[in-house]
Specification:
By secondary structure, this protein is of the alpha+beta class. It contains 15 helices and seven strands. The chain has a five-stranded antiparallel beta sheet, covered by helices on one side. Strands 6-7 form a two-stranded antiparallel sheet. It starts with 13 loop residues before the first strand and ends with a helix. The N terminus is likely disordered.
Length: 309
């Protein structure tokens, strides 16, 4: 792709069979803490007929909209429906997976599932997921999105220009810098992307990974416990970040990330007040079973939307 971003996003919408999320569920999936590269276009309401999201991963730029006719998409010429289906983890039977969670004996989990029917876990590029969650320490979603956007705009390269997006208020679509590219960027330039102390972790991780080609691919392919232990060798990667990367970037559904919202949920709804994150994570994996990460996303989403009521 040239620096000018010469390709255009398709003018025609295509149906995407296999998933019919409500606008609220689509919002929670794309913009609820799993990914940080989706934007609801200004002026587009979160209800039909104008629920238009623009997102990027790798070298792909895609727009999604949910309405009465189901989910529709359009993207750059190089993006196929297979690319999008992989990103949305279309190969998994999410209805069956959700049905196998212990909601029959867990009334609160049943409420969470009913509030967000068809919620799913994205399958993002592993290296990009690591970068996003290294930006996440002590930050809210909107701030993480800002950091990631600045890294893409200043140190990535364009996928599309603003006019090519067919969404005039969007920023230009740029890919994120790769880890070898990040290894060449001075820490002060990373800090200029509002990273703060996270810049050091990203710079050190980038140098580690640049010196070890294939390390991320090898880690992604490992079983969950070994992959988690290996990720935690990286600067700035603790248990929560490792679990987020493995759940949202490697599809390891047994991972159970514990953040503030999950701590609140387990304290308020399951009586685990005062428990440490590691204890809560152990409870989550034990109580919810091999799909604990999917249960976690339902709990997280419900607590953010309804927890104050």
């Amino acid at each position: 792709m040239t620096r000018s971003g010469s390709s255009k996003i398709s003018s025609g919408w295509q149906p995407l069979a296999g998933w019919s999320p409500t606008p609220d569920v689509l919002r929670e999936t794309l913009d609820g803490g799993q990914a940080f590269r989706w934007t609801l276009e200004p002026g587009a309401a979160a209800t039909p007929p104008r629920c238009l999201w623009t997102g990027n991963w790798s070298t792909h730029c895609v727009q999604l909209r949910a309405g009465g006719s189901g989910l529709q998409w359009r993207g750059t010429p190089a993006t196929t429906s297979a690319d999008l289906c992989r990103y949305l983890a279309h190969d998994l039977d999410w209805t069956a997976l959700t049905n196998s969670l212990p909601w029959r004996s867990d009334a609160h989990l049943a409420h969470c599932i009913a509030a967000f029917p068809d919620l799913r876990i994205l399958r993002q590029p592993f290296g990009e997921t690591l970068l996003g969650f290294l930006c996440s320490a002590t930050k809210q979603i909107v701030q993480i999105k800002q950091m990631v956007a600045l890294l893409a705009e200043r140190h990535g390269s364009p996928i599309l220009s603003r006019s090519a997006l067919r969404a005039p208020h969007s920023a230009s679509a740029c890919r994120l810098p790769t880890w070898p590219e990040l290894a060449t960027i001075p820490e002060k330039d990373l800090r200029a992307c509002l990273l703060g102390f996270r810049a050091r972790y990203i710079a050190e991780t980038a140098k580690f990974l640049a010196a070890r080609p294939g390390w991320l691919d090898e880690t992604e392919a490992l079983p969950y416990p070994a992959a988690k232990a290996r990720l935690m060798e990286l600067p700035g990667v603790g248990e929560k970040v490792a679990d987020c990367v493995l759940l949202f970037g490697a599809g390891k559904l047994e991972a159970f990330p514990v953040d503030t919202w999950v701590l609140k949920s387990l304290a308020r709804r399951y009586g685990l007040d005062g428990w440490k994150p590691a204890q809560v994570a152990h409870f989550g994996r034990t109580h919810f079973g091999p799909l604990a990460g999917l249960a976690q996303q339902y709990l997280f989403s419900w607590e953010r939307k309804f927890g104050g009521r």
